[in-house]
Amino acid sequence: MATYIVLFRGVGGATLLPVQPLKTALIEGGFERVATYINTGNVVLISDARPKVIVQRIAAIALEKFAFSKAIMILSKPQWKKLIADNPFPEHAGEGDKLHAFLMEKKPDDEAVKALERKAIGLPEQFRIGGKVLYYYPPQGASQSKLHGKIESTLRVTTTARNWNTVLKLEQLADKLEKTS
């Protein structure tokens, strides 16, 4: 059995995944221990299945119960802890509503990364890529950022982002879920 953090892409605004119905649907779908966090598509669960199988099962449940068919990303608890430990902006970790982690479906190619670097020239935003994670810090906040809305299209990879407050909360939920086993 392993603990996983599962993130749904594109949840928020008009697309909601209500946490209690989602949790209920996942339990009814065969997942025994499940925790959800806010209506933006965050799930922590424990399973003995492989990550790819977990995502396939969750995708089928989300489509059937909620007509949701966007990307779903999954990291094991050790991978999540590494994401936190590898934060290249530790001086901004206390600004949890501004610092973000973008999970990417795959590592972007070098030319796409260079294109994003060019778009960031002269802007106060900072980003670093480590594997399939883009760490992003816009000091003015994401809603005022000139780069935030261009990240996914410029890198040409599917992403889902969470602010640092959510990143840390999901780590806490994973720890708590394991302790209740």
UniProtKB/TrEMBL annotation:
Organism annotation: Phyllobacterium sophorae
Lineage: Bacteria, Pseudomonadati, Pseudomonadota, Alphaproteobacteria, Hyphomicrobiales
InterPro entries: DUF1697 (IPR012545)
Ranges annotated as spanning the membrane: none
Name of this chain's protein: DUF1697 domain-containing protein
